[in-house]
Amino acid sequence: MGKTWEQLEAIQPVVLKMFKNSIVKDRLAHAYLFEGMKGTGKREASMLLAKSRFCREPLDGYVPCETCSNCKRINSGNHPDVHILEPDGLSIKKSQIQSLQEEFSKTGVESKRKLYVIVHADRMTVNAANSLLKFLEEPHSETTAVLITEQSQQMLPTILSRCQTISFKPLSPAEMIQQLKNNGVDPAQAPLLAQITNNMDEALQYSSDDWFVQAQKIVLKLYEVVKKNPLEAMVALQEDWFLHFKEKEQIDRGLDLLLLIFKDLLYIQLGKQDQVVHLNERNRLEQFALQSSTKRLTEQMTAVLEAKRKLQANMNPQLLMEQLVLKLQEGSSFV
């Protein structure tokens, strides 16, 4: 089941207010483009819009009841007048758009209303996009189209111009923390996850991922040995880090976690304890913070950020990490 009106309103209040006004005034556009980062509720919003359109007894005229047969069928993905189109392989093909058009040329099975959703609309082939364009140019008065994308810049301007664009905003860390707690995530882990990503789906995935739990331990251990001596730090890289952080994306995640340790130490020094994200390690970090200067922490954070930049520029990851460890120890920023 998708999110209820209240749940989505907590994440995307502006979008839901617009829905409410359009539905109550019966001014829904015939085509919408939902654009925004992954995990911001675009797909859930399209299903909510469908339920608002087809619900037999909407509360206050716009909130789906979630209990009538139409709401239940939309939630389970088998309402005959609601169609969802997803990429077939890497792209959405012309034949898929044509099948959709054929479906829509028939009268609505249960009412005149119809709604279709195209997920990853930016992945339409040129032929598929041109096919859809004709469809959008001759809208049926009771048909609603929803195109969903994370990459609106990759879509044909002619399609964009025929849709009302609705932007889904990324969640703020405070909203993320609350949503994560609502989803049963350990309150001590939520602040860290909210700093690592503002994608709700990704954060929930990390919260139950053994790799991520282990990653945090390895990063903390690396920080501790960096404080001791260069040799031990190099051994820790070989024995722990390189075995765990293998792909570029994983290394980048590891660097993010390392950066968060330095940020926490800086917050402690500045007396901003409420912004610390390593809640379970706070006592240890307070001890570490006494052993460093604000200037040194700033230089170390600069070194980590520089390592992230070099990683994206495809520098050899092993060399990059060895250089970083040495820089963190001498406390000077990258040359």
Automatic annotation (TrEMBL):
EC number: 2.7.7.7
Listed GO CC annotations: DNA polymerase III complex
Residues in the signal sequence: none
Catalysis performed (reactions): DNA(n) + a 2'-deoxyribonucleoside 5'-triphosphate = DNA(n+1) + diphosphate
Top class in the EC scheme: transferase
Record-level GO BP terms: DNA-templated DNA replication
Domain of life of the source: Bacteria
Keywords carried by this UniProt record: DNA replication, DNA-directed DNA polymerase, Nucleotidyltransferase, Transferase
Gene3D superfamilies, A to Z: 1.20.272.10, P-loop containing nucleotide triphosphate hydrolases
Stretches assigned to the DNA polymerase III delta subunit C-terminal domain: 245-329
GO molecular function: 3'-5' exonuclease activity; DNA binding; DNA-directed DNA polymerase activity
NCBIfam families (UniProt xref): holB, PRK08058.1
Protein name: DNA polymerase III subunit delta'
Organism ancestry: Bacteria, Bacillati, Bacillota, Bacilli, Bacillales
